[in-house]
Design a protein that fits this description.
mainly beta; Immunoglobulin-like; 11-stranded mixed β-sheet; 2 helices; 11 strands
Length: 148
Protein backbone atom coordinates (compact mmCIF):
# COMPACT_ATOMS: atom_id res chain seq x y z
CA UNK A 1 0.00 0.00 0.00
CA UNK A 2 2.78 2.41 0.93
CA UNK A 3 4.62 1.64 -2.31
CA UNK A 4 1.46 2.29 -4.37
CA UNK A 5 0.94 5.65 -2.60
CA UNK A 6 4.55 6.71 -3.25
CA UNK A 7 4.23 5.74 -6.92
CA UNK A 8 1.02 7.79 -7.28
CA UNK A 9 2.56 10.76 -5.46
CA UNK A 10 5.68 10.61 -7.65
CA UNK A 11 3.54 10.54 -10.80
CA UNK A 12 1.57 13.63 -9.68
CA UNK A 13 4.78 15.51 -8.90
CA UNK A 14 6.17 14.54 -12.31
CA UNK A 15 3.06 15.89 -14.02
CA UNK A 16 3.31 19.18 -12.16
CA UNK A 17 7.01 19.59 -12.87
CA UNK A 18 6.70 18.58 -16.51
CA UNK A 19 4.39 21.43 -17.38
CA UNK A 20 1.14 19.63 -17.97
CA UNK A 21 -0.40 22.98 -18.86
CA UNK A 22 -2.98 23.75 -21.49
CA UNK A 23 -1.65 27.29 -22.05
CA UNK A 24 -0.98 27.25 -25.77
CA UNK A 25 0.92 30.53 -25.86
CA UNK A 26 3.13 32.59 -23.58
CA UNK A 27 1.53 34.80 -20.93
CA UNK A 28 0.70 38.45 -21.55
CA UNK A 29 3.30 40.98 -20.47
CA UNK A 30 2.60 44.29 -18.76
CA UNK A 31 4.70 47.37 -18.12
CA UNK A 32 3.93 49.77 -15.30
CA UNK A 33 5.02 53.36 -15.89
CA UNK A 34 4.36 55.07 -12.55
CA UNK A 35 0.61 54.74 -12.01
CA UNK A 36 -0.11 53.57 -15.56
CA UNK A 37 -0.03 49.92 -16.54
CA UNK A 38 -0.07 48.95 -20.22
CA UNK A 39 -0.02 45.61 -21.96
CA UNK A 40 3.05 45.01 -24.09
CA UNK A 41 2.01 43.57 -27.43
CA UNK A 42 3.10 39.99 -28.03
CA UNK A 43 5.26 39.45 -31.07
CA UNK A 44 7.07 36.34 -32.30
CA UNK A 45 7.14 33.38 -29.92
CA UNK A 46 7.90 29.68 -29.58
CA UNK A 47 5.96 27.81 -26.90
CA UNK A 48 5.60 24.19 -25.72
CA UNK A 49 2.50 22.91 -23.96
CA UNK A 50 0.56 19.75 -23.18
CA UNK A 51 1.55 16.57 -21.41
CA UNK A 52 5.35 16.69 -20.99
CA UNK A 53 5.38 19.78 -23.26
CA UNK A 54 5.00 17.62 -26.37
CA UNK A 55 3.08 20.17 -28.44
CA UNK A 56 4.87 23.21 -29.82
CA UNK A 57 3.57 26.44 -31.32
CA UNK A 58 5.78 28.78 -33.33
CA UNK A 59 4.20 32.14 -34.14
CA UNK A 60 5.80 34.75 -36.33
CA UNK A 61 4.64 38.35 -36.46
CA UNK A 62 5.32 41.59 -38.23
CA UNK A 63 8.27 43.79 -37.27
CA UNK A 64 8.37 45.48 -33.86
CA UNK A 65 8.16 48.87 -35.62
CA UNK A 66 4.90 47.85 -37.29
CA UNK A 67 3.47 46.44 -34.04
CA UNK A 68 4.42 49.65 -32.16
CA UNK A 69 2.34 51.71 -34.60
CA UNK A 70 -0.73 49.79 -33.40
CA UNK A 71 -0.34 50.85 -29.77
CA UNK A 72 -0.48 54.03 -27.74
CA UNK A 73 2.94 55.55 -27.09
CA UNK A 74 3.68 56.01 -23.39
CA UNK A 75 5.14 59.38 -22.39
CA UNK A 76 7.98 59.03 -19.87
CA UNK A 77 10.70 61.17 -18.33
CA UNK A 78 14.40 60.62 -18.99
CA UNK A 79 15.87 57.82 -16.81
CA UNK A 80 12.37 56.45 -16.09
CA UNK A 81 11.83 52.79 -15.25
CA UNK A 82 9.05 50.37 -16.12
CA UNK A 83 8.16 47.39 -13.96
CA UNK A 84 7.61 44.29 -16.12
CA UNK A 85 5.08 41.66 -15.00
CA UNK A 86 3.31 38.70 -16.59
CA UNK A 87 -0.30 37.53 -16.48
CA UNK A 88 0.72 34.16 -15.02
CA UNK A 89 2.98 35.81 -12.41
CA UNK A 90 6.01 33.97 -13.80
CA UNK A 91 9.56 35.20 -13.53
CA UNK A 92 11.27 34.57 -16.89
CA UNK A 93 14.77 35.65 -17.83
CA UNK A 94 14.40 39.06 -19.42
CA UNK A 95 16.38 41.19 -21.82
CA UNK A 96 15.42 44.34 -23.72
CA UNK A 97 16.73 46.37 -26.64
CA UNK A 98 15.84 49.52 -28.51
CA UNK A 99 14.55 48.49 -31.95
CA UNK A 100 15.67 50.84 -34.71
CA UNK A 101 16.01 50.49 -38.48
CA UNK A 102 14.71 46.91 -38.30
CA UNK A 103 17.45 45.75 -35.94
CA UNK A 104 18.09 45.36 -32.22
CA UNK A 105 20.26 48.25 -31.13
CA UNK A 106 21.13 49.50 -27.66
CA UNK A 107 20.56 46.97 -24.88
CA UNK A 108 18.53 48.33 -21.99
CA UNK A 109 19.31 47.17 -18.45
CA UNK A 110 16.73 45.13 -16.52
CA UNK A 111 17.18 44.42 -12.83
CA UNK A 112 14.53 42.91 -10.55
CA UNK A 113 11.92 43.27 -13.33
CA UNK A 114 12.69 47.00 -13.56
CA UNK A 115 13.41 48.06 -17.14
CA UNK A 116 15.59 51.18 -17.40
CA UNK A 117 14.23 53.24 -20.28
CA UNK A 118 16.39 55.40 -22.59
CA UNK A 119 17.86 58.59 -21.14
CA UNK A 120 17.79 60.73 -24.29
CA UNK A 121 14.64 62.41 -25.55
CA UNK A 122 12.94 60.76 -28.50
CA UNK A 123 10.53 58.07 -29.64
CA UNK A 124 11.57 54.48 -28.98
CA UNK A 125 10.34 51.02 -29.84
CA UNK A 126 11.38 48.65 -27.05
CA UNK A 127 11.73 44.93 -27.81
CA UNK A 128 11.41 42.81 -24.67
CA UNK A 129 12.58 39.17 -24.78
CA UNK A 130 11.30 36.73 -22.14
CA UNK A 131 12.64 33.17 -21.79
CA UNK A 132 10.99 30.34 -19.85
CA UNK A 133 11.69 26.60 -19.78
CA UNK A 134 8.64 26.15 -22.02
CA UNK A 135 9.79 28.61 -24.66
CA UNK A 136 10.37 32.27 -25.34
CA UNK A 137 8.49 35.31 -26.55
CA UNK A 138 9.11 38.84 -27.75
CA UNK A 139 6.96 41.77 -26.63
CA UNK A 140 6.82 45.35 -27.94
CA UNK A 141 6.48 48.67 -26.10
CA UNK A 142 6.36 52.16 -27.55
CA UNK A 143 7.68 55.07 -25.46
CA UNK A 144 8.42 58.75 -25.94
CA UNK A 145 11.07 60.15 -23.62
CA UNK A 146 10.55 63.85 -23.00
CA UNK A 147 11.30 66.50 -20.37
CA UNK A 148 8.02 68.36 -21.10
Amino acid sequence: MKKKWMLTFSFIVLLILSGCSSDQEPPNAFARFGDTQVRALKSTYEWSYGFLNTEKVVADSSSPSHIARQMKTQIVRPKAKAKITFSNRSNPRLSAHVWKNDREREELPIRDKQLALPKKEGNYVILLHARWMRGNAYYVLSVRVTTH
